[in-house]
Amino acid sequence: MSDQIPALRLEGIVKTFPGVRALDGVSFDVMPGEVHALMGENGAGKSTLMKVLGGIYQPNEGQIIVNETPVVMASPLEAKAKGILFIHQELSLAQELSVAENVYLGELPLKRFGRVDWASLYAKTDEILARLNVGFNAKTIVGSLSIANQQMVEIARALTVDAKAVIFDEPTASLTDAEKVVLFDVITDLKSRGVGIIYISHRMEEIFKITDRISVLRDGQHTGTAITAETDEDQVTQMMIGRKLDLSRNAVHHELGDVALEVRGLSCGDLFHDISFEVRRGEVLGFYGLVGAGRTEIAETLFGLRDPSAGTILLNGQETRIASPIDAISRGISLVPEDRKGQGLVLGMNCRDNMTLPQVDTLKSGPFVAPGAENAIFDKYKDRLDIRTPGWKQTVGNLSGGNQQKIVIGKWLSMHPSVLIVDEPTRGIDVGSKSEIHNLIRELAAQGYAVIVISSEMPEVLHVADRIIAMYSGRIMRTFTSDEVTEDNLIQAISGITNDKVA
């Protein structure tokens, strides 16, 4: 690799925003046929660096060099024309358009007089989709696809040109295990054709499975590069955050209180069936299962976003009907959703107003909201959750994914719920912030909250939960205590093996 010319090189990149030096003289390169991981805590500068490379941001200082030629990326289309493709962590698709129109957006094949060559467009797109082995075609409307399939449309964009380098920003965050296999096959194919891959992920197992080198950013600076085969998770973590993490299974037990929430025989159409469980004050109850098992749909039903077709919900021993999120909030149930950008935040609004949005009516002094009360709430949870932002006026859309998630969690904690439901609490969040949020969840339980955690990550539920409900195809297969659960019996349960077979 040392004899090759880098497919892409960045030298001394500086990028500043008002009050923030997001990148401080970063140099980075990727070789042809290399998968190069870029890691760091949320706010370390990874996404900013890639947005500079992808033509979304313009650097204040430094150079971008493609095949030893300095270039200026004035826009994403110009970056793409130079062979640099960016597959975003957060989807950037036009929901009302077809898959083909999204894949070739801005570059639609034309016939005479500027008319779109639809036959060519659909044929070219279907050829790409065949490589990805997906279950939809070029004419499918993107908005009708699942989040996971929309991510595959993003990936299809990378296969439309002769790429020099492709940036994957948290590409597996919404993918099933089967779709991950397809993605890794695509990456292997790109690598074999000499394309340089920049792979941003917080998932260590993926990093060590598919990458050749790992570079780390901390506080906007490049702290080092290591050959993947010559390092390990502990060393990379220390490069990222400067300390070791305790990610062992939860072993802290404390006194549990009364039952805060009980569910009896809850069903919702074909989504889930005959769900019964309870969660006590001081307890963390984990839900674990494959994509489509019904976990998120249960949370949405408890929060009033779906109408149950059968069953009973009891809060503090009293039967209740939750017809809307307003009902849920008034009864002390809060939901941190999986889709923080689509459901948890108003991206164009500032940090403070996002955090206080559900309680605006209670913060009024006369006809106006009291800014002092709003500021006090924001300051409290900014410190408590270590939210990294120059101040409350910062637009939430400008924060890193991890800090956005902390804003959502702070919003609901400030409502002092009795039951807190957290769906994928650390999706797209770095290992340091994961540890902080895990510790926070345990602290909340110790303070008397009843916490439900829904997660697709086995180490997460093993670490934070007192009990774990394993789901398969809309049904509860088995409930484990933290003392009896193992990785093997948990995997068996979520794979549809019956209780008798597991036992």
Describe this entry's structure for a reader.
The chain is an alpha/beta fold. The chain has two domains: 8-241, Rossmann fold (3-Layer(aba) Sandwich), CATH 3.40.50.300; 260-332 and 450-495, P-loop containing nucleotide triphosphate hydrolases (Rossmann fold, 3-Layer(aba) Sandwich). The chain has 18 helices and 22 strands. The chain has helices spanning 46-53, 76-81, 99-103, 118-132, 147-157, 177-192, 204-210, 233-241, 295-302, 325-330, 340-344, 351-356, 371-385, 401-413, 431-446, 458-464, 487-494, 499-502; strands at residues 8-17, 20-30, 35-39, 61-66, 69-71, 84-87, 165-169, 196-200, 213-218, 221-227, 259-268, 272-280, 284-289, 310-315, 318-320, 333-336, 364-365, 368-369, 419-423, 450-455, 467-472, 475-481. The strands form five sheets. It has a six-stranded mixed β-sheet, with helices on both faces. The protein has a six-stranded mixed β-sheet with strand order 16-19-20-13-21-22, sandwiched between helices. Helix 13 (371-385) packs across helix 14 (401-413). It starts with 7 loop residues before the first strand and ends with a helix. Mean pLDDT is 86; it is low at 499-503. Keywords: ATP-binding, Cell membrane, Hydrolase, Membrane, Nucleotide-binding, Repeat, Sugar transport, Translocase, Transport. Residues 8-244, 254-498 form the ABC transporter domain. This is Sugar ABC transporter ATP-binding protein. Pfam families: ABC_tran (PF00005). Its EC number is 3.6.3.17.
